[in-house]
Protein backbone atom coordinates (compact mmCIF):
# COMPACT_ATOMS: atom_id res chain seq x y z
CA UNK A 1 0.00 0.00 0.00
CA UNK A 2 1.91 3.03 -1.23
CA UNK A 3 1.42 6.41 0.38
CA UNK A 4 4.06 9.08 0.88
CA UNK A 5 3.05 10.40 4.30
CA UNK A 6 4.59 7.70 6.41
CA UNK A 7 4.70 7.29 9.32
CA UNK A 8 1.03 8.34 9.80
CA UNK A 9 2.13 11.55 11.51
CA UNK A 10 3.98 13.88 9.12
CA UNK A 11 5.25 17.35 9.87
CA UNK A 12 4.96 20.22 7.38
CA UNK A 13 6.37 23.68 8.00
CA UNK A 14 6.31 23.18 11.73
CA UNK A 15 2.70 22.00 11.84
CA UNK A 16 1.83 18.38 12.41
CA UNK A 17 -0.76 16.90 10.10
CA UNK A 18 -2.19 13.48 10.79
CA UNK A 19 -3.00 10.94 8.13
CA UNK A 20 -4.32 7.51 8.91
CA UNK A 21 -4.91 4.39 6.90
CA UNK A 22 -5.38 0.84 8.04
CA UNK A 23 -5.45 -1.27 4.90
CA UNK A 24 -2.60 -2.95 3.05
CA UNK A 25 -2.77 -3.66 -0.66
CA UNK A 26 -3.41 -7.30 0.17
CA UNK A 27 -6.35 -6.30 2.37
CA UNK A 28 -7.68 -3.99 -0.33
CA UNK A 29 -7.73 -6.75 -2.92
CA UNK A 30 -9.81 -8.95 -0.63
CA UNK A 31 -12.67 -6.47 -0.52
CA UNK A 32 -14.66 -4.57 -3.10
CA UNK A 33 -13.89 -1.29 -1.34
CA UNK A 34 -10.39 0.00 -0.69
CA UNK A 35 -9.69 1.81 2.54
CA UNK A 36 -9.04 5.43 1.67
CA UNK A 37 -6.49 7.42 3.67
CA UNK A 38 -7.88 10.25 5.77
CA UNK A 39 -6.48 13.57 6.89
CA UNK A 40 -6.97 14.90 10.40
CA UNK A 41 -8.63 18.31 10.47
CA UNK A 42 -8.01 21.13 12.93
CA UNK A 43 -11.57 20.59 14.15
CA UNK A 44 -10.52 17.16 15.44
CA UNK A 45 -12.53 15.29 12.83
CA UNK A 46 -11.12 13.31 9.91
CA UNK A 47 -11.77 13.69 6.19
CA UNK A 48 -11.06 11.16 3.41
CA UNK A 49 -8.32 12.48 1.18
CA UNK A 50 -10.40 11.95 -1.97
CA UNK A 51 -14.02 12.98 -2.51
CA UNK A 52 -16.54 12.66 -5.30
CA UNK A 53 -17.28 16.08 -6.76
CA UNK A 54 -20.81 16.93 -7.87
CA UNK A 55 -20.24 20.29 -9.60
CA UNK A 56 -21.76 20.18 -13.10
CA UNK A 57 -23.29 16.73 -12.44
CA UNK A 58 -26.53 16.88 -14.44
CA UNK A 59 -29.99 15.80 -13.30
CA UNK A 60 -30.62 12.12 -13.79
CA UNK A 61 -26.92 11.26 -13.64
CA UNK A 62 -25.95 12.58 -10.23
CA UNK A 63 -27.55 9.76 -8.24
CA UNK A 64 -25.92 7.16 -10.46
CA UNK A 65 -22.57 8.82 -9.82
CA UNK A 66 -23.06 8.84 -6.05
CA UNK A 67 -24.04 5.16 -6.03
CA UNK A 68 -21.03 4.25 -8.17
CA UNK A 69 -18.79 6.23 -5.85
CA UNK A 70 -20.00 4.45 -2.72
CA UNK A 71 -19.70 1.08 -4.46
CA UNK A 72 -16.08 1.88 -5.28
CA UNK A 73 -15.07 2.99 -1.81
CA UNK A 74 -15.61 6.74 -1.77
CA UNK A 75 -16.66 7.96 1.66
CA UNK A 76 -16.67 11.69 0.96
CA UNK A 77 -19.06 13.80 -1.13
CA UNK A 78 -18.53 17.42 -2.10
CA UNK A 79 -21.87 19.18 -2.61
CA UNK A 80 -23.32 22.69 -2.93
CA UNK A 81 -26.82 24.09 -3.16
CA UNK A 82 -26.00 26.14 -6.25
CA UNK A 83 -25.06 22.92 -8.11
CA UNK A 84 -28.82 22.33 -8.36
CA UNK A 85 -28.60 18.63 -7.56
CA UNK A 86 -28.62 18.27 -3.77
CA UNK A 87 -32.21 17.04 -3.83
CA UNK A 88 -31.22 14.17 -6.12
CA UNK A 89 -28.23 13.41 -3.92
CA UNK A 90 -30.47 13.39 -0.84
CA UNK A 91 -32.86 10.88 -2.37
CA UNK A 92 -29.90 8.69 -3.31
CA UNK A 93 -28.38 8.92 0.17
CA UNK A 94 -31.65 7.90 1.77
CA UNK A 95 -31.75 4.81 -0.43
CA UNK A 96 -28.12 3.95 0.33
CA UNK A 97 -28.65 4.30 4.09
CA UNK A 98 -31.83 2.21 4.05
CA UNK A 99 -30.19 -0.56 2.00
CA UNK A 100 -27.20 -0.70 4.31
CA UNK A 101 -24.79 0.10 1.47
CA UNK A 102 -23.18 2.68 3.71
CA UNK A 103 -23.81 4.21 7.12
CA UNK A 104 -24.35 7.92 7.62
CA UNK A 105 -21.60 8.07 10.23
CA UNK A 106 -19.12 6.63 7.73
CA UNK A 107 -19.73 9.35 5.13
CA UNK A 108 -18.09 12.76 5.12
CA UNK A 109 -20.48 15.21 3.45
CA UNK A 110 -19.37 18.72 2.65
CA UNK A 111 -21.63 21.55 1.53
CA UNK A 112 -21.15 25.23 0.81
CA UNK A 113 -22.74 28.52 1.83
CA UNK A 114 -23.83 30.32 -1.32
CA UNK A 115 -22.90 33.91 -2.19
CA UNK A 116 -26.44 35.27 -1.91
CA UNK A 117 -26.60 34.22 1.72
CA UNK A 118 -23.57 35.83 3.37
CA UNK A 119 -25.57 38.14 5.62
CA UNK A 120 -25.79 36.65 9.14
CA UNK A 121 -29.58 36.31 9.02
CA UNK A 122 -29.39 34.39 5.72
CA UNK A 123 -26.87 31.73 6.74
CA UNK A 124 -29.32 29.49 8.60
CA UNK A 125 -31.88 29.42 5.74
CA UNK A 126 -29.04 28.43 3.40
CA UNK A 127 -27.97 25.55 5.64
CA UNK A 128 -31.53 24.43 6.34
CA UNK A 129 -32.30 24.25 2.61
CA UNK A 130 -29.29 22.01 2.00
CA UNK A 131 -30.09 19.79 4.98
CA UNK A 132 -33.65 19.40 3.72
CA UNK A 133 -32.55 18.57 0.18
CA UNK A 134 -29.90 16.14 1.38
CA UNK A 135 -32.27 14.61 3.98
CA UNK A 136 -29.68 15.02 6.72
CA UNK A 137 -29.71 16.48 10.21
CA UNK A 138 -26.06 17.60 10.12
CA UNK A 139 -23.17 17.98 7.69
CA UNK A 140 -19.55 17.15 8.27
CA UNK A 141 -18.16 20.28 6.64
CA UNK A 142 -19.64 23.66 5.72
CA UNK A 143 -17.50 26.09 3.79
CA UNK A 144 -18.05 29.63 2.53
CA UNK A 145 -18.17 29.04 -1.23
CA UNK A 146 -16.69 32.39 -2.28
CA UNK A 147 -15.51 35.40 -0.24
CA UNK A 148 -17.62 37.90 -2.19
CA UNK A 149 -21.32 38.42 -1.51
CA UNK A 150 -22.02 38.47 -5.21
CA UNK A 151 -24.04 37.62 -7.07
CA UNK A 152 -26.26 38.76 -4.25
CA UNK A 153 -29.11 41.19 -3.80
CA UNK A 154 -28.96 41.15 0.00
CA UNK A 155 -32.67 41.55 0.66
CA UNK A 156 -33.44 37.90 1.49
CA UNK A 157 -31.94 34.45 1.36
CA UNK A 158 -32.07 32.59 -1.95
CA UNK A 159 -31.90 28.79 -2.18
CA UNK A 160 -32.20 26.09 -4.83
CA UNK A 161 -35.99 26.16 -4.94
CA UNK A 162 -35.84 29.90 -5.69
CA UNK A 163 -33.90 29.11 -8.86
CA UNK A 164 -30.26 28.00 -9.17
CA UNK A 165 -29.75 30.12 -12.27
CA UNK A 166 -29.27 33.75 -13.31
CA UNK A 167 -32.42 35.85 -13.24
CA UNK A 168 -33.72 39.30 -12.43
CA UNK A 169 -33.24 40.15 -8.77
CA UNK A 170 -36.96 40.79 -8.34
CA UNK A 171 -37.59 37.04 -8.64
CA UNK A 172 -34.95 36.32 -5.94
CA UNK A 173 -32.87 33.65 -7.72
CA UNK A 174 -29.50 32.39 -6.46
CA UNK A 175 -27.75 34.34 -9.25
CA UNK A 176 -29.53 37.74 -9.16
CA UNK A 177 -29.03 40.08 -12.10
CA UNK A 178 -29.83 43.79 -12.15
CA UNK A 179 -31.99 45.55 -14.74
CA UNK A 180 -28.91 46.26 -16.88
CA UNK A 181 -27.88 42.61 -17.07
CA UNK A 182 -25.02 42.61 -14.54
CA UNK A 183 -24.75 40.44 -11.45
CA UNK A 184 -26.01 42.17 -8.32
CA UNK A 185 -23.52 42.79 -5.55
CA UNK A 186 -24.01 43.21 -1.80
CA UNK A 187 -21.03 45.36 -0.69
CA UNK A 188 -22.44 45.79 2.83
CA UNK A 189 -21.85 42.11 3.58
CA UNK A 190 -18.42 40.86 4.67
CA UNK A 191 -17.21 37.30 5.21
CA UNK A 192 -15.94 37.90 8.76
CA UNK A 193 -19.51 38.39 9.99
CA UNK A 194 -20.48 35.31 8.01
CA UNK A 195 -17.70 33.28 9.59
CA UNK A 196 -18.89 33.96 13.12
CA UNK A 197 -22.33 32.58 12.23
CA UNK A 198 -20.69 29.40 10.93
CA UNK A 199 -18.93 29.05 14.27
CA UNK A 200 -22.30 29.21 15.99
CA UNK A 201 -23.60 26.42 13.76
CA UNK A 202 -20.84 24.15 15.07
CA UNK A 203 -22.01 24.95 18.60
CA UNK A 204 -25.52 23.91 17.61
CA UNK A 205 -24.36 20.54 16.26
CA UNK A 206 -25.59 21.22 12.73
CA UNK A 207 -22.05 21.39 11.35
CA UNK A 208 -18.91 19.59 12.50
CA UNK A 209 -16.21 21.41 10.60
CA UNK A 210 -16.08 24.80 8.88
CA UNK A 211 -13.85 26.19 6.19
CA UNK A 212 -13.38 28.39 3.15
CA UNK A 213 -13.34 28.13 -0.63
CA UNK A 214 -11.89 30.41 -3.33
CA UNK A 215 -10.35 32.72 -0.73
CA UNK A 216 -6.96 34.27 -1.39
CA UNK A 217 -4.10 34.31 1.11
CA UNK A 218 -4.88 37.76 2.52
CA UNK A 219 -8.54 36.90 3.04
CA UNK A 220 -7.68 33.61 4.76
CA UNK A 221 -5.38 35.51 7.09
CA UNK A 222 -8.19 37.89 8.00
CA UNK A 223 -10.46 34.99 8.92
CA UNK A 224 -7.70 33.33 10.96
CA UNK A 225 -7.30 36.49 13.03
CA UNK A 226 -11.06 36.72 13.56
CA UNK A 227 -11.63 33.13 14.74
CA UNK A 228 -13.43 33.03 18.09
CA UNK A 229 -14.59 29.48 18.69
CA UNK A 230 -13.74 27.08 15.88
CA UNK A 231 -10.77 26.87 13.51
CA UNK A 232 -10.55 27.17 9.77
CA UNK A 233 -10.13 23.49 8.93
CA UNK A 234 -10.43 23.32 5.14
CA UNK A 235 -9.58 25.53 2.18
CA UNK A 236 -11.00 24.35 -1.14
CA UNK A 237 -9.47 26.11 -4.16
CA UNK A 238 -8.74 25.32 -7.78
CA UNK A 239 -5.52 23.33 -7.98
CA UNK A 240 -3.98 21.15 -10.68
CA UNK A 241 -0.59 20.70 -12.41
CA UNK A 242 -1.04 24.00 -14.29
CA UNK A 243 -1.99 25.85 -11.06
CA UNK A 244 -0.01 24.16 -8.32
CA UNK A 245 -0.68 26.71 -5.55
CA UNK A 246 2.60 25.95 -3.78
CA UNK A 247 2.73 29.14 -1.70
CA UNK A 248 -0.91 28.89 -0.68
CA UNK A 249 -0.56 25.22 0.25
CA UNK A 250 2.47 26.01 2.42
CA UNK A 251 0.51 28.82 4.07
CA UNK A 252 -2.33 26.39 4.81
CA UNK A 253 0.02 23.76 6.23
CA UNK A 254 1.63 26.33 8.50
CA UNK A 255 -1.83 27.29 9.80
CA UNK A 256 -3.06 23.69 10.13
CA UNK A 257 -5.58 24.04 7.30
CA UNK A 258 -6.11 21.10 4.96
CA UNK A 259 -5.90 22.24 1.34
CA UNK A 260 -8.52 20.55 -0.83
CA UNK A 261 -8.17 20.81 -4.61
CA UNK A 262 -11.19 21.25 -6.84
CA UNK A 263 -10.81 20.78 -10.59
CA UNK A 264 -7.70 18.67 -9.86
CA UNK A 265 -7.67 17.55 -13.49
CA UNK A 266 -7.67 21.12 -14.78
CA UNK A 267 -11.07 20.73 -16.39
CA UNK A 268 -10.78 23.47 -18.98
CA UNK A 269 -14.05 22.52 -20.62
CA UNK A 270 -16.08 24.66 -18.23
CA UNK A 271 -18.06 27.48 -19.79
CA UNK A 272 -16.45 29.75 -17.19
CA UNK A 273 -12.95 29.32 -18.65
CA UNK A 274 -12.08 32.67 -20.23
CA UNK A 275 -8.38 32.23 -20.97
CA UNK A 276 -6.70 29.53 -23.02
CA UNK A 277 -4.11 27.23 -21.50
CA UNK A 278 -0.60 28.67 -21.97
CA UNK A 279 0.65 25.28 -23.14
CA UNK A 280 -1.98 24.97 -25.85
CA UNK A 281 -3.52 21.92 -24.19
CA UNK A 282 -5.39 21.18 -20.98
CA UNK A 283 -3.53 19.16 -18.31
CA UNK A 284 -5.29 15.93 -19.35
CA UNK A 285 -3.55 16.26 -22.73
CA UNK A 286 -0.14 17.37 -21.42
CA UNK A 287 2.71 15.26 -22.91
CA UNK A 288 4.70 15.20 -19.65
CA UNK A 289 1.72 13.73 -17.80
CA UNK A 290 1.01 11.37 -20.71
CA UNK A 291 4.55 9.97 -20.46
CA UNK A 292 4.13 9.28 -16.75
CA UNK A 293 0.76 7.64 -17.38
CA UNK A 294 2.32 5.30 -19.92
CA UNK A 295 5.19 4.46 -17.55
CA UNK A 296 2.88 3.45 -14.70
CA UNK A 297 0.12 2.00 -16.87
CA UNK A 298 -2.29 4.56 -15.48
CA UNK A 299 -4.47 7.26 -17.02
CA UNK A 300 -3.39 10.92 -17.06
CA UNK A 301 -6.19 11.61 -14.60
CA UNK A 302 -4.84 9.01 -12.17
CA UNK A 303 -1.34 10.46 -12.41
CA UNK A 304 -2.60 13.97 -11.64
CA UNK A 305 -4.69 12.83 -8.70
CA UNK A 306 -1.79 10.75 -7.38
CA UNK A 307 0.55 13.75 -7.66
CA UNK A 308 -1.70 15.98 -5.56
CA UNK A 309 -2.45 13.30 -2.96
CA UNK A 310 1.24 12.40 -2.74
CA UNK A 311 2.06 15.97 -1.70
CA UNK A 312 -0.63 15.89 1.00
CA UNK A 313 -3.38 17.72 -0.88
CA UNK A 314 -6.94 16.40 -0.61
CA UNK A 315 -8.76 16.17 -3.94
CA UNK A 316 -12.32 16.47 -5.22
CA UNK A 317 -12.61 14.30 -8.33
CA UNK A 318 -15.75 14.84 -10.37
CA UNK A 319 -17.23 12.43 -12.88
CA UNK A 320 -20.63 10.96 -13.67
CA UNK A 321 -19.15 8.02 -15.58
CA UNK A 322 -18.98 4.92 -13.33
CA UNK A 323 -15.79 3.59 -14.94
CA UNK A 324 -13.99 6.90 -14.44
CA UNK A 325 -15.28 7.19 -10.89
CA UNK A 326 -13.70 3.79 -10.21
CA UNK A 327 -10.44 4.79 -11.93
CA UNK A 328 -10.15 8.05 -10.02
CA UNK A 329 -9.91 6.29 -6.68
CA UNK A 330 -7.52 3.61 -7.97
CA UNK A 331 -4.41 5.67 -7.24
CA UNK A 332 -2.98 4.04 -4.13
CA UNK A 333 -1.04 1.18 -5.76
CA UNK A 334 1.78 3.25 -7.27
CA UNK A 335 4.07 6.07 -6.21
CA UNK A 336 5.73 8.81 -8.22
CA UNK A 337 9.46 9.18 -7.62
CA UNK A 338 10.91 12.25 -5.91
CA UNK A 339 12.40 13.30 -9.24
CA UNK A 340 9.04 12.97 -10.99
CA UNK A 341 7.29 14.95 -8.27
CA UNK A 342 9.86 17.72 -8.65
CA UNK A 343 9.56 17.66 -12.45
CA UNK A 344 5.92 18.74 -12.16
CA UNK A 345 7.29 22.23 -11.45
CA UNK A 346 8.21 22.49 -15.13
CA UNK A 347 4.52 22.69 -16.11
CA UNK A 348 3.36 25.01 -13.31
CA UNK A 349 2.26 27.80 -15.65
CA UNK A 350 -0.24 29.49 -13.30
CA UNK A 351 -3.33 28.88 -15.42
CA UNK A 352 -6.52 29.51 -13.44
CA UNK A 353 -9.52 28.64 -15.59
CA UNK A 354 -12.20 29.60 -13.06
CA UNK A 355 -11.97 33.37 -12.63
CA UNK A 356 -15.70 34.17 -12.77
CA UNK A 357 -14.86 37.74 -13.72
CA UNK A 358 -18.50 38.80 -13.87
CA UNK A 359 -18.56 38.93 -10.04
CA UNK A 360 -15.47 41.14 -9.74
CA UNK A 361 -17.64 44.20 -9.00
CA UNK A 362 -17.69 43.15 -5.34
CA UNK A 363 -14.81 44.47 -3.17
CA UNK A 364 -14.14 40.97 -1.79
CA UNK A 365 -13.66 39.33 -5.19
CA UNK A 366 -10.47 37.27 -4.63
CA UNK A 367 -8.65 37.33 -7.97
CA UNK A 368 -8.52 41.00 -8.92
CA UNK A 369 -4.76 40.86 -9.46
CA UNK A 370 -5.30 38.24 -12.18
CA UNK A 371 -7.63 40.41 -14.25
CA UNK A 372 -6.30 42.50 -17.16
CA UNK A 373 -5.47 46.09 -16.19
CA UNK A 374 -8.09 47.35 -18.62
CA UNK A 375 -10.76 44.83 -17.69
CA UNK A 376 -14.32 46.07 -17.96
CA UNK A 377 -17.06 44.29 -16.09
CA UNK A 378 -18.98 41.82 -18.24
CA UNK A 379 -22.67 41.17 -18.10
CA UNK A 380 -23.91 38.05 -16.36
CA UNK A 381 -23.90 34.86 -18.45
CA UNK A 382 -27.13 33.02 -19.13
CA UNK A 383 -25.80 29.97 -17.32
CA UNK A 384 -25.02 29.57 -13.64
CA UNK A 385 -21.58 28.49 -12.44
CA UNK A 386 -22.77 24.88 -12.61
CA UNK A 387 -24.19 25.29 -16.11
CA UNK A 388 -27.84 25.64 -15.11
CA UNK A 389 -29.97 27.87 -17.33
CA UNK A 390 -33.28 29.45 -16.50
Strand arrangement in the largest pleated sheet: 5-6-7-8-11-12-13-14
How large is the radius of gyration?
A: 20 Å
Low-confidence stretches: 1-18, 21-31
Strand content: 15-25%
Helix run count: 11
Shape: globular
Q: What can be said about the biggest beta sheet?
A: 8 strands, parallel, barrel
Order of SSEs, N→C? Answer: EEHEEEHEHEHEEEHEHEHEHHEHH
Helix content: 25-40%
What structural class results from the helix and strand content?
A: alpha/beta
- Strands, total number: 14
The average pLDDT value, as a whole number, equals 90
Between the first and last Cα atoms, what is the distance in angstroms? 47 Å
List descriptors:
14 strands, globular, 29% helix, single chain, alpha/beta
Structural account:
By secondary structure, the chain is of the alpha/beta class. The protein is built from eleven helices and 14 strands. It has helices spanning 25-30, 62-71, 86-99, 120-134, 191-203, 217-226, 246-254, 287-296, 300-310, 322-329, 338-343; strands at residues 9-12, 15-20, 38-40, 46-48, 50-53, 76-78, 108-113, 139-144, 166-168, 175-177, 207-213, 232-238, 258-262, 314-318. Strands 5-6-7-8-11-12-13-14 form an eight-stranded parallel barrel, surrounded by seven helices. A four-stranded antiparallel sheet has the order 1-2-3-4. It has a two-stranded parallel ribbon with strand order 9-10. α2 packs parallel to α3 and α8 (287-296) crosses α9 (300-310). The longest helix has 15 residues, at 120-134. The N and C termini lie far apart (47 Å). Residues 1-18 and 21-31 have low confidence and may be disordered.
Amino acid sequence: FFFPLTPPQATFAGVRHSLSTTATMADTKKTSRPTIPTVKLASGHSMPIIALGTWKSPPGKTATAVKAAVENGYLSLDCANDYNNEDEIGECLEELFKSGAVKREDLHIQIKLWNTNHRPEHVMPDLEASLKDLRLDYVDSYVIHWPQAGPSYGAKAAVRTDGAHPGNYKTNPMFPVDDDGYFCSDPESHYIETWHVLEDLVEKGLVRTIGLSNFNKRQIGEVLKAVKKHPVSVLQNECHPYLQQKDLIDFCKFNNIVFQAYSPLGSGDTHLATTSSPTGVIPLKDPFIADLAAKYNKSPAQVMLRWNVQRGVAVVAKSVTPSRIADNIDIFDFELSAEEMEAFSSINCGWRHLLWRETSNHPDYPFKDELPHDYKLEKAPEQSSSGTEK
